[in-house]
Each structure stands twice: as structure tokens, then as C-alpha cells.
Amino acid sequence: MATVAASASKPSASKPFAARPAAARPDRDLSRPLPASLSWTVLVVFAGALALAVAAYDLPWWLGAWYGAASVVAFVVYGADKSAARRAAPRVSERTLLALGLVGGWPGALVAQQVFRHKTRKRTFRRAFWTTVLLNVVVLALLIAWVAGGPALLGADYSGMLQ
User: Fold this and answer.
1) Measured at the alpha carbon of residue 111, what is the angle toward residues 110 and 117, in degrees to the nearest 5?
2) Domain ranges of the chain
3) Residue pLDDT, tens place only, 71-124
4) Contact 51, 60 (CB under 8 A)
């Protein structure tokens, strides 16, 4: 009887690597997930700030549409990757997931991470993901600053180029 219990808790060689419990894979870079409230707060603040900037600075309508479309794509891809992980099927690369976030799909990726509980514990991925979010927001802020106050607001003087 004790032999059966011991063999049941030990991962078998025939069991796919992705389906083994995390404790059986000590090489994984896992940590506790960030609080879900942090993700939702960042998302709400970003959506409000983007809506305010579009209204206040007459930004192009397609900017919000771009974030929406990229977010839907990211959400679907994260869901597909989670499904593949459960089935031990071929996965979407982390590079692809990060690229989707960098081009504006990070709000959808953030929602997908919470809804599917996917990519919330791997420390290296989380750091890279939040770096892409920061880069995306900085580029957006620079774009808004340019539209709001022109190139002079950014400290650039292009007046000599026009002569």
C-alpha cells in the first residue's frame, strides 16, 4: 500500500513535462502573484487617462481603437497559450506574448493574466511584461505631450529645420 502512495505522488516519465506539478520542477522561476487589485487598478487608471487625453488633446480616434484591438488579440493569444499549457501542446513563445503587450495589447494581456491565471507567477516574465507596459506608456505619454504642446514641450527646437 505504501508503494502505491509513493508512486502516485512521483511524476511519471510518461507524463508530459508541462503537466507535472510545479513542485516536481524546481528549476522554475516562480513567485507569489502580484495582487489582482494592482492589475485592475493600473488598467482602470490607464483607461481613464487615455480617455481623458483623447478628449482633452484631440488625439486621433484610432488610438483608443488600436489599444482595444491589440488588447482583444492579446487576450485571445494568452487564452490559447493557457489552453495549450493545460494540454501540453505547442505553446506561444514568451517573446510573442511580450511583443503583443509592447505594441499596445498589454491591457488585454493584463485582463487575460487575471481571468486565465496565466503568466502571473513566473518572476522573469512578470518583470519583462511590466517593463513592456512601462515602455508603452512612456511612448504614449511622449506622443500626448507632443500633440498637447508641440515639439517645444519636449525640449526640441525644430524651427531651424523649417527655414
Assistant:
1) 90
2) 34-150
3) 999 999 999 999 998 999 999 999 999 999 999 999 999 999 989 988 877 888
4) no
